[in-house]
Amino acid sequence: MSDAETLFEKIIAREIPAEIVYETDTTLAFRDIQPQARVHVLVVPKKRYRNLAEFAAADPAGLADVVATAAKVAELEGISASGYRVVFNTDADAGQTVFHVHAHVLGGEQLGHFGRPG
After folding, report:
1. Which domains can be identified in the chain, with CATH numbers?
2. For the chain, first and last CA: distance in Å?
3. Residue ranges for motif Histidine triad motif (predicted)?
């Protein structure tokens, strides 16, 4: 992993502004600047891991915190009853562009299917 700070580390440090939805001691949730649904919030652990596999192996409790924060975000955003999606993209072929593990919380409307586009 590069020693260079990621965009998310700069958001966590409040060096770059973001619309924060929820925060705990170990996680930060903020709105995606290119939303793919009416509700699109990113949940990041404050400690950097490159991807989901690295995170799960190194810090299972931290992964549980991210999932709990995703559920809290869904509740705060009013989408927990109607349904929501939590997505982790792992590495470039899956669409990961910032290599600091993060969960996408999506909802607030009927979501399409996964997989190849159109």
Report:
1. 7-107 (3.30.428.10)
2. 34
3. 100-104
- 102 among known catalytic residues: yes
C-alpha dihedral (73, 91, 36, 65), degrees to nearest 10? 0
Among residues 40, 100, 102, 104, which one is catalytic?
102
Render pLDDT for 27-80 as a digit per residue (tens, 0 to 9). Answer: 999 999 999 999 999 999 999 999 999 999 999 999 999 999 999 999 999 999
Q: Are the beta carbons of 44 and 27 closer than 8 angstroms?
A: yes
Q: Do the bridges between strand 39-45 and strand 27-31 make them parallel or antiparallel, or are there none, so unpaired?
A: antiparallel
